[in-house]
Design brief:
The chain has 384 residues and is an alpha+beta fold. Among the domains are: 7-54, Seminal Fluid Protein  PDC-109 (Domain B) (Ribbon), CATH 2.10.10; 170-211, no CATH class. The protein is built from ten helices and 14 strands. It has helices spanning 12-15, 68-82, 104-113, 135-142, 154-161, 213-219, 264-267, 281-284, 311-314, 322-330; strands at residues 8-10, 25-28, 33-36, 45-46, 116-119, 225-228, 237-240, 277-278, 296-300, 304-308, 336-340, 344-348, 363-364, 379-383. The protein is elongated.
Length: 384
Protein backbone atom coordinates (compact mmCIF):
# COMPACT_ATOMS: atom_id res chain seq x y z
CA UNK A 1 0.00 0.00 0.00
CA UNK A 2 1.39 3.38 -1.02
CA UNK A 3 1.55 6.08 1.66
CA UNK A 4 1.19 9.69 0.68
CA UNK A 5 2.97 12.37 2.76
CA UNK A 6 1.99 16.04 2.87
CA UNK A 7 4.43 18.62 4.24
CA UNK A 8 3.46 21.64 6.27
CA UNK A 9 2.40 24.20 3.70
CA UNK A 10 1.42 27.86 3.59
CA UNK A 11 0.69 30.56 1.08
CA UNK A 12 3.68 32.87 0.54
CA UNK A 13 2.55 35.60 2.98
CA UNK A 14 2.10 33.06 5.77
CA UNK A 15 5.22 31.09 4.80
CA UNK A 16 7.29 34.25 5.16
CA UNK A 17 6.22 34.47 8.82
CA UNK A 18 6.66 30.79 9.76
CA UNK A 19 9.64 29.80 11.94
CA UNK A 20 10.30 26.10 11.50
CA UNK A 21 12.51 23.71 13.44
CA UNK A 22 16.03 22.70 12.39
CA UNK A 23 15.82 20.44 9.30
CA UNK A 24 12.07 20.93 8.88
CA UNK A 25 10.80 21.28 5.32
CA UNK A 26 7.68 23.27 4.41
CA UNK A 27 6.08 24.24 1.12
CA UNK A 28 5.31 27.72 -0.27
CA UNK A 29 2.08 26.92 -2.12
CA UNK A 30 2.05 30.28 -3.91
CA UNK A 31 5.33 29.62 -5.76
CA UNK A 32 5.23 25.79 -5.33
CA UNK A 33 8.70 25.93 -3.79
CA UNK A 34 10.19 24.06 -0.86
CA UNK A 35 11.67 25.84 2.13
CA UNK A 36 14.28 24.41 4.51
CA UNK A 37 14.29 25.73 8.08
CA UNK A 38 17.19 26.19 10.49
CA UNK A 39 15.23 27.12 13.60
CA UNK A 40 16.40 30.76 13.42
CA UNK A 41 15.45 32.23 10.05
CA UNK A 42 11.79 33.34 9.91
CA UNK A 43 10.22 32.05 6.69
CA UNK A 44 13.03 29.55 6.15
CA UNK A 45 15.34 29.36 3.12
CA UNK A 46 13.47 28.85 -0.13
CA UNK A 47 15.06 26.41 -2.60
CA UNK A 48 15.36 27.29 -6.30
CA UNK A 49 13.00 25.54 -8.63
CA UNK A 50 14.32 23.77 -11.68
CA UNK A 51 12.75 26.35 -13.95
CA UNK A 52 14.26 29.16 -11.82
CA UNK A 53 10.88 30.92 -11.66
CA UNK A 54 11.34 31.78 -7.99
CA UNK A 55 14.93 33.06 -8.45
CA UNK A 56 15.35 36.80 -9.20
CA UNK A 57 17.50 37.98 -12.08
CA UNK A 58 21.03 39.07 -11.27
CA UNK A 59 21.92 42.77 -11.24
CA UNK A 60 25.07 44.74 -10.66
CA UNK A 61 24.31 44.74 -6.93
CA UNK A 62 22.25 41.56 -6.33
CA UNK A 63 23.14 37.94 -7.18
CA UNK A 64 20.58 35.96 -9.12
CA UNK A 65 19.89 33.98 -12.25
CA UNK A 66 21.26 35.05 -15.61
CA UNK A 67 18.66 36.28 -18.06
CA UNK A 68 18.66 35.30 -21.73
CA UNK A 69 19.81 38.77 -22.66
CA UNK A 70 22.70 38.58 -20.22
CA UNK A 71 23.69 35.18 -21.56
CA UNK A 72 23.72 36.53 -25.13
CA UNK A 73 25.93 39.45 -24.14
CA UNK A 74 28.33 37.10 -22.36
CA UNK A 75 28.55 34.90 -25.41
CA UNK A 76 29.46 37.90 -27.54
CA UNK A 77 32.25 38.92 -25.21
CA UNK A 78 33.54 35.39 -25.10
CA UNK A 79 33.65 35.26 -28.88
CA UNK A 80 35.55 38.53 -29.11
CA UNK A 81 38.18 37.34 -26.68
CA UNK A 82 38.45 34.04 -28.47
CA UNK A 83 39.67 35.85 -31.61
CA UNK A 84 42.05 38.14 -29.73
CA UNK A 85 45.73 37.21 -29.95
CA UNK A 86 46.92 39.28 -26.95
CA UNK A 87 48.00 42.35 -28.92
CA UNK A 88 46.22 45.43 -30.21
CA UNK A 89 46.41 44.26 -33.75
CA UNK A 90 43.09 44.51 -35.43
CA UNK A 91 41.52 46.62 -32.65
CA UNK A 92 40.93 50.36 -32.99
CA UNK A 93 43.19 52.75 -31.10
CA UNK A 94 41.46 55.28 -28.78
CA UNK A 95 41.37 58.90 -29.88
CA UNK A 96 39.64 62.08 -28.72
CA UNK A 97 36.29 60.95 -30.19
CA UNK A 98 36.25 57.11 -29.98
CA UNK A 99 37.09 54.58 -27.31
CA UNK A 100 39.76 52.01 -28.04
CA UNK A 101 43.08 50.62 -26.95
CA UNK A 102 46.02 52.86 -25.96
CA UNK A 103 48.77 53.21 -28.48
CA UNK A 104 52.45 52.97 -27.59
CA UNK A 105 52.83 56.68 -28.35
CA UNK A 106 50.14 57.55 -25.84
CA UNK A 107 51.84 55.31 -23.31
CA UNK A 108 55.08 57.29 -23.74
CA UNK A 109 53.25 60.54 -23.22
CA UNK A 110 51.52 59.20 -20.12
CA UNK A 111 54.78 58.00 -18.67
CA UNK A 112 56.43 61.34 -19.39
CA UNK A 113 53.74 63.23 -17.49
CA UNK A 114 55.21 62.19 -14.14
CA UNK A 115 58.47 63.92 -14.89
CA UNK A 116 57.05 67.50 -14.50
CA UNK A 117 56.99 67.09 -10.75
CA UNK A 118 59.71 64.57 -10.31
CA UNK A 119 58.87 61.13 -9.03
CA UNK A 120 55.62 62.52 -7.58
CA UNK A 121 53.10 65.00 -8.91
CA UNK A 122 53.27 68.57 -7.56
CA UNK A 123 50.40 69.68 -5.30
CA UNK A 124 48.10 72.40 -6.46
CA UNK A 125 48.77 75.82 -4.97
CA UNK A 126 45.73 77.92 -4.01
CA UNK A 127 45.73 80.95 -6.28
CA UNK A 128 49.00 79.71 -7.87
CA UNK A 129 50.31 76.81 -9.94
CA UNK A 130 48.13 73.90 -10.96
CA UNK A 131 48.82 70.49 -9.53
CA UNK A 132 47.27 67.43 -8.00
CA UNK A 133 44.99 67.36 -4.98
CA UNK A 134 46.51 66.53 -1.64
CA UNK A 135 45.01 64.01 0.73
CA UNK A 136 44.00 66.79 3.12
CA UNK A 137 42.22 68.62 0.30
CA UNK A 138 40.44 65.42 -0.68
CA UNK A 139 39.19 65.05 2.90
CA UNK A 140 37.84 68.60 2.77
CA UNK A 141 36.19 67.94 -0.57
CA UNK A 142 34.50 64.82 0.75
CA UNK A 143 33.09 66.90 3.64
CA UNK A 144 31.28 69.27 1.30
CA UNK A 145 27.61 68.49 0.88
CA UNK A 146 26.04 67.80 -2.46
CA UNK A 147 25.03 70.96 -4.37
CA UNK A 148 26.97 73.15 -1.94
CA UNK A 149 27.98 76.57 -3.25
CA UNK A 150 29.95 79.57 -2.02
CA UNK A 151 27.65 82.33 -3.26
CA UNK A 152 24.62 81.95 -0.99
CA UNK A 153 22.64 85.12 -0.32
CA UNK A 154 21.60 86.28 3.13
CA UNK A 155 18.02 85.20 2.44
CA UNK A 156 19.19 81.70 1.48
CA UNK A 157 21.31 81.40 4.62
CA UNK A 158 18.43 82.64 6.80
CA UNK A 159 16.08 80.12 5.17
CA UNK A 160 18.49 77.36 6.22
CA UNK A 161 18.87 78.69 9.78
CA UNK A 162 15.22 79.32 10.67
CA UNK A 163 14.08 75.65 10.60
CA UNK A 164 16.76 74.67 13.14
CA UNK A 165 16.62 77.78 15.32
CA UNK A 166 15.17 77.17 18.76
CA UNK A 167 15.74 77.34 22.50
CA UNK A 168 18.85 75.13 22.31
CA UNK A 169 19.97 75.64 18.72
CA UNK A 170 22.96 77.79 19.67
CA UNK A 171 21.88 80.45 17.17
CA UNK A 172 20.75 84.02 17.79
CA UNK A 173 18.21 82.99 20.42
CA UNK A 174 20.99 81.77 22.71
CA UNK A 175 24.30 83.19 21.59
CA UNK A 176 25.63 85.94 19.34
CA UNK A 177 29.36 86.08 18.62
CA UNK A 178 29.93 83.56 21.42
CA UNK A 179 28.28 85.83 23.99
CA UNK A 180 25.62 84.37 26.28
CA UNK A 181 22.65 86.74 26.89
CA UNK A 182 21.66 87.57 30.47
CA UNK A 183 18.73 89.27 32.15
CA UNK A 184 20.97 90.76 34.86
CA UNK A 185 22.65 94.18 34.80
CA UNK A 186 25.95 92.77 33.48
CA UNK A 187 28.23 94.92 31.34
CA UNK A 188 29.04 93.99 27.70
CA UNK A 189 26.38 91.27 27.44
CA UNK A 190 23.33 90.71 25.30
CA UNK A 191 20.04 91.55 27.03
CA UNK A 192 17.29 88.99 27.37
CA UNK A 193 14.13 88.74 29.48
CA UNK A 194 13.94 86.54 32.56
CA UNK A 195 11.11 84.18 33.51
CA UNK A 196 9.04 87.21 34.61
CA UNK A 197 9.63 88.92 31.21
CA UNK A 198 11.90 91.55 32.79
CA UNK A 199 15.44 92.76 32.13
CA UNK A 200 17.75 94.62 34.49
CA UNK A 201 19.98 97.64 33.80
CA UNK A 202 22.38 99.81 35.77
CA UNK A 203 21.40 103.31 36.95
CA UNK A 204 21.19 105.77 34.02
CA UNK A 205 24.00 108.26 33.55
CA UNK A 206 23.72 109.77 30.08
CA UNK A 207 20.63 111.44 28.64
CA UNK A 208 19.91 108.52 26.28
CA UNK A 209 20.27 105.80 28.96
CA UNK A 210 17.35 103.55 29.88
CA UNK A 211 15.60 104.66 33.07
CA UNK A 212 15.25 101.97 35.75
CA UNK A 213 12.44 101.71 38.32
CA UNK A 214 14.36 103.28 41.21
CA UNK A 215 15.22 106.27 39.02
CA UNK A 216 11.59 106.75 37.96
CA UNK A 217 10.38 106.35 41.55
CA UNK A 218 12.78 109.09 42.62
CA UNK A 219 11.26 111.49 40.07
CA UNK A 220 7.81 111.01 41.65
CA UNK A 221 8.49 109.94 45.26
CA UNK A 222 6.30 107.37 46.98
CA UNK A 223 3.38 109.00 48.77
CA UNK A 224 3.03 111.88 46.28
CA UNK A 225 -0.67 112.76 45.84
CA UNK A 226 -1.92 113.91 42.43
CA UNK A 227 -5.28 114.48 40.73
CA UNK A 228 -6.49 112.33 37.83
CA UNK A 229 -9.37 113.12 35.48
CA UNK A 230 -10.38 109.49 34.93
CA UNK A 231 -12.37 106.69 36.54
CA UNK A 232 -9.65 105.43 38.88
CA UNK A 233 -6.02 105.98 39.82
CA UNK A 234 -3.60 104.57 37.21
CA UNK A 235 -1.34 101.56 37.68
CA UNK A 236 1.30 102.26 40.31
CA UNK A 237 -1.02 104.60 42.22
CA UNK A 238 -3.57 103.98 44.99
CA UNK A 239 -6.85 105.87 45.09
CA UNK A 240 -7.24 108.18 48.12
CA UNK A 241 -10.76 107.83 49.58
CA UNK A 242 -10.31 110.11 52.60
CA UNK A 243 -11.77 113.13 50.78
CA UNK A 244 -15.06 112.95 48.87
CA UNK A 245 -17.60 115.52 47.59
CA UNK A 246 -15.33 118.48 48.41
CA UNK A 247 -14.22 121.63 46.58
CA UNK A 248 -10.64 122.80 46.07
CA UNK A 249 -9.15 125.95 47.58
CA UNK A 250 -5.91 127.53 46.39
CA UNK A 251 -3.73 128.81 49.24
CA UNK A 252 -0.41 130.64 49.31
CA UNK A 253 0.63 129.02 52.61
CA UNK A 254 1.18 125.33 53.37
CA UNK A 255 -1.14 122.99 51.44
CA UNK A 256 -2.38 119.52 52.18
CA UNK A 257 -4.90 120.42 54.89
CA UNK A 258 -8.71 120.30 54.83
CA UNK A 259 -11.55 122.06 56.67
CA UNK A 260 -15.25 122.83 56.42
CA UNK A 261 -18.32 120.84 57.35
CA UNK A 262 -20.81 120.77 54.44
CA UNK A 263 -20.31 118.72 51.31
CA UNK A 264 -20.00 120.24 47.84
CA UNK A 265 -23.47 119.17 46.66
CA UNK A 266 -25.00 120.28 49.96
CA UNK A 267 -23.93 123.91 49.43
CA UNK A 268 -24.20 124.07 45.66
CA UNK A 269 -27.21 123.05 43.59
CA UNK A 270 -30.62 124.30 42.42
CA UNK A 271 -33.39 125.91 44.62
CA UNK A 272 -31.38 126.40 47.78
CA UNK A 273 -33.65 127.94 50.58
CA UNK A 274 -32.51 129.07 54.02
CA UNK A 275 -34.49 128.00 57.12
CA UNK A 276 -36.71 130.27 59.28
CA UNK A 277 -34.76 133.23 60.66
CA UNK A 278 -35.91 135.38 63.62
CA UNK A 279 -34.48 138.92 63.59
CA UNK A 280 -33.58 140.58 66.89
CA UNK A 281 -34.39 144.21 67.79
CA UNK A 282 -30.80 145.15 67.09
CA UNK A 283 -31.08 143.57 63.59
CA UNK A 284 -34.49 145.16 62.67
CA UNK A 285 -34.22 148.66 64.37
CA UNK A 286 -36.38 150.39 67.10
CA UNK A 287 -39.78 149.18 68.31
CA UNK A 288 -43.12 150.53 67.03
CA UNK A 289 -43.44 154.41 66.98
CA UNK A 290 -45.49 157.26 65.29
CA UNK A 291 -45.01 160.77 63.83
CA UNK A 292 -47.59 163.74 64.26
CA UNK A 293 -47.96 166.74 61.88
CA UNK A 294 -48.67 169.39 64.68
CA UNK A 295 -49.36 173.21 64.07
CA UNK A 296 -47.23 176.29 63.57
CA UNK A 297 -48.15 180.00 64.24
CA UNK A 298 -45.68 182.88 64.47
CA UNK A 299 -45.62 186.75 64.06
CA UNK A 300 -44.13 188.00 60.83
CA UNK A 301 -43.05 191.57 60.07
CA UNK A 302 -42.44 190.90 56.44
CA UNK A 303 -42.35 194.15 54.32
CA UNK A 304 -45.19 194.69 51.84
CA UNK A 305 -47.12 197.64 50.14
CA UNK A 306 -50.71 198.79 49.70
CA UNK A 307 -52.06 200.66 46.65
CA UNK A 308 -53.38 204.18 47.41
CA UNK A 309 -54.62 207.28 45.46
CA UNK A 310 -57.33 208.04 42.93
CA UNK A 311 -56.59 204.90 41.06
CA UNK A 312 -58.21 202.98 43.83
CA UNK A 313 -61.64 204.24 42.83
CA UNK A 314 -60.87 203.87 39.15
CA UNK A 315 -59.79 200.37 39.68
CA UNK A 316 -63.06 199.52 41.28
CA UNK A 317 -62.41 199.64 44.96
CA UNK A 318 -60.44 196.75 46.33
CA UNK A 319 -60.64 194.72 43.17
CA UNK A 320 -57.51 194.77 40.98
CA UNK A 321 -56.63 193.71 37.53
CA UNK A 322 -53.80 194.36 35.11
CA UNK A 323 -56.07 195.89 32.47
CA UNK A 324 -57.55 198.45 34.81
CA UNK A 325 -54.12 199.32 36.13
CA UNK A 326 -52.87 199.99 32.61
CA UNK A 327 -55.90 202.22 31.91
CA UNK A 328 -55.25 204.23 35.04
CA UNK A 329 -51.62 204.81 34.11
CA UNK A 330 -52.51 205.92 30.61
CA UNK A 331 -54.99 208.44 32.10
CA UNK A 332 -52.16 210.06 34.06
CA UNK A 333 -53.79 208.88 37.17
CA UNK A 334 -50.87 206.83 38.41
CA UNK A 335 -51.32 205.10 41.75
CA UNK A 336 -48.98 205.47 44.65
CA UNK A 337 -47.69 202.73 46.97
CA UNK A 338 -47.24 203.11 50.67
CA UNK A 339 -44.97 200.84 52.69
CA UNK A 340 -46.48 199.07 55.66
CA UNK A 341 -44.96 196.92 58.40
CA UNK A 342 -48.14 195.60 59.89
CA UNK A 343 -47.76 192.54 62.08
CA UNK A 344 -49.66 189.39 61.06
CA UNK A 345 -49.52 185.57 61.47
CA UNK A 346 -49.69 182.45 59.24
CA UNK A 347 -51.25 179.29 60.61
CA UNK A 348 -50.20 175.81 59.24
CA UNK A 349 -52.65 173.10 60.10
CA UNK A 350 -52.56 169.31 59.45
CA UNK A 351 -53.71 165.94 60.73
CA UNK A 352 -51.54 163.93 63.08
CA UNK A 353 -51.10 160.27 61.97
CA UNK A 354 -49.27 157.42 63.78
CA UNK A 355 -46.85 155.22 61.75
CA UNK A 356 -47.55 151.47 61.63
CA UNK A 357 -45.61 149.51 64.16
CA UNK A 358 -42.96 147.03 62.89
CA UNK A 359 -42.85 143.74 64.74
CA UNK A 360 -39.25 143.01 65.76
CA UNK A 361 -39.80 139.26 66.19
CA UNK A 362 -41.24 138.35 62.72
CA UNK A 363 -39.97 134.95 61.29
CA UNK A 364 -39.51 134.62 57.52
CA UNK A 365 -37.50 132.85 54.74
CA UNK A 366 -35.00 134.11 52.18
CA UNK A 367 -34.66 132.17 48.88
CA UNK A 368 -31.28 132.37 47.17
CA UNK A 369 -30.74 132.14 43.44
CA UNK A 370 -29.46 128.87 41.84
CA UNK A 371 -25.87 127.91 42.70
CA UNK A 372 -25.84 124.89 40.36
CA UNK A 373 -22.23 125.29 39.17
CA UNK A 374 -20.71 123.02 36.55
CA UNK A 375 -17.95 120.71 37.78
CA UNK A 376 -15.93 117.63 36.82
CA UNK A 377 -15.22 114.55 38.90
CA UNK A 378 -11.58 113.76 39.63
CA UNK A 379 -9.89 111.20 41.84
CA UNK A 380 -6.84 111.61 44.03
CA UNK A 381 -4.06 109.03 43.77
CA UNK A 382 -1.07 108.37 46.00
CA UNK A 383 2.18 107.11 44.39
CA UNK A 384 2.96 103.56 45.50
Amino acid sequence: MIKRVQRVRHIKSAADLFLGRVGEITVNTTDNAARVHDGATVGGIEQARKDMVNVPAATGAVDGKMTATQASDLSTVKSDFATHDGSIDGHPVADASDDGFMSSADKVILDAHIGSGGAAHADVVAGGADGFMTGADKTKLNGIETAAKNDQTGSEILALLLPVDGASSGLDADKLRNETPTSGATADTIVRRNSAARSQFASPNAAADVAIKSYVDAVIPTGTVMLFFQNDAPVGWTRVTTHNNKAFRVVSASGGGSAGGDGFTTVFGTGKVTGNVTLSAAQSGSAAHSHGVGSYAAASNGAHTHLQGNAQNDLGGSSFSRNRLDAAVQGNDAPTFTASDGAHTHTVTGTSAAAAAVAATASHNHTRGSMNLQYINIVMGSKN
